[in-house]
Write a structure and sequence with these properties.
heterodimer, A: 113 residues, alpha+beta, HU Protein, Chain A, 3-stranded antiparallel beta sheet, two-stranded antiparallel ribbon, 3 helices, extended, B: 110 residues, two-stranded antiparallel sheet, elongated
Amino acid sequence: MANNNQETAPIVKSDLIIALSEKVSLPFKDVEMAVNQILDCMSTALSNGLRIEIRSFGSFRLNYCPPRRAHNPKTGEKVATIDKYRPHFKPGKELRERVNTAFLEDTEVEEVV
Amino acid sequence: MSSLTKALIAEHLFNTLGLNMREAKELVELFFEETRTVLESGRNVKLSGFGNFVLRDKKQRPGRNPKTGEEIPIDARRVVTFRAGQKLKLRVEKHVGKEIENANREQEEV
C-alpha cells in the first residue's frame, strides 16, 4: 500500500471496484456495472419488502417503526409522524468473527508493545 | 421463502449484463469477500446510494447470564453496523408505505 498513513480511511465504492477488477479477468467497465447492479438488486429487493440473506456475510431486513407523537422542539407544536420501515443489517457469523478476531489481535499487539 | 440470495443476485447479473453464470457467481462472491476483508482490516466501507458499513469498538461491560443471574463480564469487541444511505431509506419508506396505504384503502372499501 502506498498510503500507509491512510490505512484506516474508509473504502468507497470506486476503491472496491478497482480491487475487484484486479482479481478477475473481466474489463473494468464490466466490474463497475456488476457492482452497481449488485447494489441496485439489493436496494430493489429491500424496497419490495424482501429479505436479503448472504451466507457468511449477513442479512438485511426491514424494521417496522410505529408512528410516534413527536413535536417540534422550537414551537412545541405537535406533529404526528407516520409509521415506516427502515433497513436493518445483522452481520453473519463469519463476518462477526473475522472482524472481532482481527481487532483482538491488534489490541494484544499494542499491549505487548 | 422470499429472500434475495447470492445465487439470485448472480442470476440478475447474468440476465442484465450478459456475463456468463460462472463469472456472475465469481463476482458476487468476490464482492462480499472483498467487503469482509476491508472490514476485517479495520476500515469502514462506504457504498454511495446504498449505505455504509461502520465498525464500532465496544468497551468491556458487565453482563449476566439471564438464566442463572450469574455475573459475567462482556469482553471488549468490535462490531459491524450498517447505516442505510438516504437514497435507500427513501426507497424503502416510499415503496412499503405505498403498500400499506393500498392495504388500508382496501380495508376501508370492505
